[in-house]
Design a protein that fits this description.
The structure is a homodimer. The first copy, chain A, is an alpha/beta fold and about 550 residues long. Among the domains of chain A are: about 1-20 and about 30-195, ANL, N-terminal domain (Rossmann fold), CATH 3.40.50; about 435-535, 2-Layer Sandwich (GMP Synthetase, Chain A, domain 3), CATH 3.30.300.30. The first copy, chain A, is about 30% helix and about 25% strand. In chain A, a hairpin with a 2-residue loop joins β1 (about 25-30) and β2. In chain A, α1 packs antiparallel against α2 and α10 (about 250-260) packs across α11. The first copy, chain A, is globular, with a radius of gyration of 24 Å. At the A-B interface, α1, β9, α7 and β16 of A face α1, β9, α7 and β16 of B. Bound molecules: adenosine-5'-triphosphate (ATP) (2 copies) and magnesium ion (MG) (2 copies). One magnesium ion binds near residues 322 and 412 of chain A. One adenosine-5'-triphosphate binds near residues 298, 411 and 428 of chain B. Chains A, B: Keywords: Ligase.
Chain lengths: ~550, ~550
């Protein structure tokens, strides 16, 4: 049969270590700054591969990590998949019950854990039934862990040969695994085959993705425990870029220092990371001159973030993705015919979730099962498919039945698409509020409310209603020093100006904090469970809580 | 089994027609300039797909083209593979016997042929035994052909629906086919699966390849009948670029006009194309200001070409490839750590065949079967493998036995690799001259000879020798007005300055013209057959025609 050799990660490592042997990998590790070259990286990765062999890891086995972003974690990124095993990155911020479920479900053999996260993991282990039976631990560094019986990483790899005769791994072999954030329900397992990771790396490298070359210095702030830090360690290796890992719980100061000292050109993270850096920069003198691109995703990037980085000469690329797609789906590059548009129009476009990257196809299905028109108004659920979009969840036959159709992933994201093809996420399907059969975007209302100075955070959820099915209620965390007396009226006015009457929340409740998921997103599931009760809107619902159809 | 959907070309078309529906495709067709949008392109491509269905083309069938670079040819590029059939591009410059062999070997059902090439094809058909039995013809345009019974293309597609329900094609399905140039022997058939073309497109789109975006205007001068014009029509579509097709037998004036009128940013072709343009520019006032990148490959780009384009503000990217790899293997981007090197060093590096693109692996094997050291000195045969490198020839079991090993393609190219990883082709294995068991690079000697003003072309080949196995003879085409009396001595002196004694040709012969292959390369096979006789060197070989081993 004609065809080329299999699509695997190994050649990316081969290329970097041969063409860029002296290029640096810099890491803020638990035991201090680590600085070595791709060539030394390859040696240590080979040592790790030999150690995994000796430990007994075989093709198809799963190896877990419970770690921040650092060089040892990066060593597992190539060693584990390239011996034919599967790297399962575990989010250490999850509640114990989720961690127990995930380790058990994935059947991990061995888990690499950070010194600073060992006691957290030990807690989950102590508390477990049989979920951790037969699982061994390696703790990242030279020292043993206090609370966990674990081999120090350096002893684990010590004495092993610095070369390894890498096998030819099949492209259909699962190489990675990650669970979704659990924003809308229990985390779901997603397996990444070698081919999926290869495809994702190549698509990231296109001009329509987030390309990296040998003159780049790449710092993923987005955690390596979540969707492979958006694949950046693989993409940077393919491009031969210098890599900078910001280590355990990086603070804005750490990021600023690394950007300045290492000359970071590309970085990536969720909006809160950049809000933190922006605040830090307003109080300190930070040199961002080397920084060219900041990728923002995971949650929506506010326009003000795009604008602030513009003033610093840094291009924000707003990206949308999902664990299910390793994760990149769209990136908000400015189209060339918008180069002459006025600045506000440009920011408007760049603040959307962007243009689908080459290799993927999508469609948007409305409530009646029809494809929407691309006019920036109509909305529906985004369906997507492609070589790096999973076509099933791990061991979840019911979810598979519901979430996939003919290779399409039903994303659960509700979007508009404008005539230029920019996708904008207006809500999650599970969060969208259905009043009288029509949709109200909870995200739109939240953003409008959060634009008020007196509001720190706001979440809008639907509460059940007999006649209209659901009605919106806003849960608001007032900003420090805000006048609670007038706030409700002001919010009501502000919304009434912008939205139809039937969109307006029937109740505004103050809360102390919006509950968050382990990846830092608003957990509306928790809000609904904790607060949302239909009694909240009793007697406050308008007579006509749906658009006038006549 | 986990994994994404298949890797096929269709989503590239889908993206371009949806995101860049108004972007233009401009073509110098036989019947005048054609200018339409991606959206109209998609309509016509769908019509063609419907017409192919009606004609009876089925999944797996082969459809040939015998055409220059133009928009109708481009319509076959997506229509044929996307209905599951296979596009076989035939080089119309091949001798009739090769054409007959190729059409028969590939078992083409239907051939699309240009108006201007119809009589050439008719000749091959008239002359054939049964090679064309059952083959039908469609002639590109509105009119019938004079010498060939053929349906006009416009009648063929007319009346068919402008949309098409594209099937899900398997990624292992052969989508394309091309025969090698026949430089070293008979052309060999290479099939491209959907996955290979997808991989090649993505690898081309990396910063290490030849990336294209929506602000680019892409003009492939390299023929679409040879290795899909280096994949550019696919890459440009994936990137949403404007495309310009230079039509039948483009002259330098045509290229200059298209560059100026259409604002071409990226173009690609073999060295002779650019020599032609350079000459034209020296005599005419041509505005190259929009041109950013010129890709040169197929044969070695002379340094002077790199330098001349630099003076025009155009970056030459020297690329190496093979029919067997769809075709891109390496591109000579300047490494970032050479950004501060002096200009001569930079040109030296950029004139090499370049750095391997991400996704491939290579090794270089010397005469003793050992891998060479990357020091720019040692040389050996280049072996390469990857997802878009074929692992077999079409129906050539003997060649397959000889040319492939464990997924590696033995390229037949003899190369050095310097410490920076730049590959330099020093010869073809079949052309390299073996004197006393040691290699002499025929290409080095030719380049040195051609540097002489009095020389138009030169080819150096080995003639058999009893004691030393082979000895070099130079075949020289003197330049117009050159002094033949002194030329031989001057060449001998020039070579003696640079090369060891045992490398020097034992004879220099004048000839009228160096025979060329159908892709315009020196055909040393023909020189050897026509001229190279061992009597040429009788009595002229030095006593020690090998390096001193002591
Ligand atoms: N740039 C963005 N703007 C807005 N939302 C985004 C953006 N990027 C990602 N998202 C949201 O994040 C989701 C993907 O997140 P992830 O895969 O981490 O898990 P989750 O969907 O939050 O959790 P779960 O699937 O378990 O409910 C997307 O479906 C989308 O809702
Ligand atoms: N930039 C370049 N510099 C020098 N040689 C090149 C370059 N690019 C390609 N080549 C030569 O062209 C070859 C590939 O050409 P192609 O596939 O068209 O057929 P061919 O090798 O000439 O013919 P055949 O394989 O039938 O003998 C390479 O193997 C190499 O020898
Ligand atoms: Mg999700
Ligand atoms: Mg060849």
């Amino acid at each position: 049969m004609p065809g080329g050799t299999d699509q695997t990660l190994r050649p990316f490592l081969w290329r970097a270590t041969n063409l860029y042997s002296d290029t640096e990998i810099v890491s803020r590790n638990h035991d201090g700054m680590q600085r070595y070259t791709y060539s030394e990286y390859e040696g240590r990765t080979s040592q790790l591969a030999n150690a995994l062999d000796e430990y007994g890891i075989e093709s198809g086995d799963r190896v877990g990590t419970f770690c921040w972003n650092h060089s040892r974690h990066f060593e597992t990124y190539f060693a584990v998949p390239s011996i034919g095993a599967q790297l399962h990155t575990i989010n250490p911020l999850l509640p114990d019950a989720h961690i127990q479920y995930i380790v058990d479900n994935a059947d991990d053999e061995l888990i690499f854990v950070d010194q600073s996260l060992a006691s957290k993991l030990a807690g989950a282990v102590a508390d477990a039934d049989d979920e951790f039976d037969g699982v061994d631990f390696v703790v990242m560094g030279h020292e043993a862990a206090d609370d966990l019986e674990a081999t120090p990483y350096e002893s684990f790899i010590e004495g092993h040969a610095t070369d390894y005769d890498w096998p030819d791994v099949d492209e259909d072999q699962p190489a990675g695994m990650c669970y979704t954030s659990g924003t809308t329900g229990n985390p779901k397992g997603v397996e990444y085959t070698q081919q999926m990771l290869w495809s994702h790396t190549m698509a990231s490298q296109t001009p329509q993705g987030i390309p990296m070359a040998d003159d780049d210095v790449v710092m993923p702030v987005v955690p390596m425990f979540h969707v492979n830090a958006w694949g950046m360690p693989f993409t940077a290796t393919a491009g031969g870029a210098k890599q900078v890992f910001p280590g355990p719980s990086p603070e804005p100061e750490d990021l600023a220092t690394l950007i300045e000292n290492e000359g970071v050109t590309i970085s990536a993270g969720v909006p809160t990371v950049w809000l933190g850096l922006m605040e830090y920069c307003s109080e300190h003198d930070v040199d961002l001159s080397t920084l060219e691109t900041v990728i923002v995703g995971g949650s929506a990037a506010p326009k003000s973030m795009v604008e602030w980085f513009d003033t610093q000469g840094v291009e924000v690329l707003h990206a949308w993705g999902m664990t299910e797609m390793a994760p990149i789906g769209s990136v908000s590059h400015l189209k060339s015919d918008l180069a002459t548009a006025d600045y506000d129009t440009q920011v408007e476009k760049r603040s959307k979730q962007g243009l689908v990257v080459p290799g993927l196809e999508f469609k948007v299905i409305d409530d009646d099962g029809e494809e929407i028109v691309w006019n920036g108004q109509e909305f529906g659920e985004l369906w997507i498919r492609g070589p790096w979009v999973t076509t099933e969840y791990f061991e979840r036959p019911e979810a598979n039945e519901a979430d996939f159709e003919d290779g399409w992933l039903k994303t659960g994201d509700v979007v508009t698409v404008d005539k230029d093809g920019y996708i904008k996420i207006v809500d999650r399907e599970k969060d969208v509020i259905k009043s009288g059969g029509e949709w109200i975007s909870s995200v739109e209302l939240e953003n409008a409310i959060m634009a008020h100075d007196g509001v720190a955070e706001a979440a809008v959820v639907g509460v059940p209603h007999e006649r209209w099915q659901e009605r919106p209620v806003a849960f608001v965390v007032p900003a420090e020093g805000a006048d609670r007396e007038t706030l409700v009226d002001e919010i009501n006015e502000l919304l009434a100006d912008e939205y139809p009457k039937w969109w307006l929340p029937d109740e505004i409740e103050f809360i102390k904090e919006v509950p968050k998921t382990a990846t830092g997103k608003f957990s509306k599931k928790d809000i609904r469970e904790e607060y949302a009760d239909q009694s909240l809107v009793e007697g406050q619902v308008p007579d006509e809580a749906a658009p006038d159809r006549n």
